[in-house]
Design brief:
Layout lengths: L5 E2 L7 E6 L10 E7 L5 H4 L5 E6 L9 H9 L3 E6 L23 H10 L9 E7 L1 H12 L6 E5 L9 H17 L12 H9 L21 H16 L7 E6 L21 H8 L6 E6 L11 H16 L4
Parallel strand pairs: 4-5, 4-6, 6-7, 7-8, 8-9
Antiparallel strand pairs: 1-2, 2-3, 3-5
């Protein structure tokens, strides 16, 4: 183990570092976990993104396991880091409520400690690009807006920027959710995930992998709670009012959505979690320089799609990142 870094469950080429948090926890200390994958020394001298650090944050009921995503960035010369937020994945401890947070601002400490471990505390010495999926995309967008100008770029993979039922319905239910969150923040919600998204990934063959941890990514998702849902709605309302992430932003998402009410084969080539038209509209409120790329045949996690749309998404991201100012 070097400087706290030790082997990761993803195997050769991956290391992890535990980041103890000052944030109080209900069952022992809360921690975040940073995973890294470094480029080949030759790529770090010659590749186009050799001066770039990527920081990836996963979505709801998720954790980092996408080795191919890390290797994609490494081939471009970037140092890749992925953060398992507290109460998620590698950071989840016995007795903790999986994924729970009272506010998305809670993750500021996770992100700051990750940047410090990357050698990026204070003034950034290398270009930092944030990469967020789904709820992680919402979290990073809000963080970037509060930390204007600290990163070189924001890349969002199907970010959860708006509720599936749209802004008007969100505004109607928000007071009810807020009221329950005040008095019963950790109460139970009915299960709404019927497991179709996990089934789509299984049929595509992207899960399980030998290192895959299904207990960190259950097929029907984590149970949800009023306090957490209120935090999400506050985030959505903030985006709807307009923010500025202070950097160029790229949003990649599917060209189509399929409502998750019953299993359909189309779920292997569309987003069965979010309504992508809503996300595309909301994306235009995160800053003055936003590129939206709709990937035909992609699923909710664009980088877990079938080979053709996945390759298309990687091309879009590589071309966009290479065109950013240095």
């Amino acid at each position: 183990m070097r400087d706290g870094w030790g082997p990761d469950l993803l195997g050769a080429g991956f290391e992890q570092l535990t980041l103890p948090l000052a944030l109080p926890g209900e069952h022992g200390q809360l921690v975040a976990t940073l995973v890294r994958s470094l480029p080949h020394p030759l790529a770090s001298w010659t590749a186009p993104l050799r001066d770039v650090d990527i920081l990836y944050v996963h979505g709801w009921s998720d954790y980092f396991f996408q080795k191919e995503l890390a290797q994609f960035w490494n081939r471009l010369g970037a140092r890749f880091y992925a953060l398992d937020l507290h109460r998620y994945g590698r950071s989840l401890r016995p007795g903790q409520i999986p994924g729970y947070a009272d506010s998305l601002d809670e993750y500021d400490e996770d992100i700051e400690l990750a940047l410090e471990a990357m050698g990026q505390r204070g003034r950034m010495r290398r270009r930092v690009m944030l990469l967020g999926h789904s709820t992680g995309g919402l979290t990073l967008t809000l963080w970037a807006a509060r930390n204007h100008g600290r990163v070189a770029a924001l890349i969002l993979n199907s970010p959860w920027l708006e509720l599936q039922v749209g802004a008007l319905a969100r505004q109607a239910i928000a007071p009810l959710v807020a009221a329950r969150a005040r008095y019963q923040p950790r109460g139970q919600h009915p299960v709404v995930d019927l497991g179709f998204y996990t089934r789509a990934q299984t049929e595509l063959g992207v899960i399980p992998t030998p290192e895959y941890q299904s207990e960190w990514r259950p097929s029907q998702g984590f149970p949800t709670h009023p306090g957490w849902f209120h935090a999400i709605l506050v985030g959505h309302a903030t985006i709807a009012d307009g923010v500025d992430v202070g950097a160029p932003a790229l949003v990649v998402l599917s060209a189509r959505s399929t409502p998750p009410v019953r299993w359909l084969p189309e779920m292997t080539s569309s987003d069965s979690v979010l309504v992508d038209d809503e996300i595309a509209r909301a994306a235009l409120r995160i800053g003055p320089l936003v590129t939206v790329a709709r990937i035909d045949g992609a699923i909710h996690d664009v980088f877990l799609s079938a080979p053709e749309p996945r390759a298309s998404a990687y091309r879009v991201v590589a071309d966009w990142a290479a065109g950013l100012p240095r």
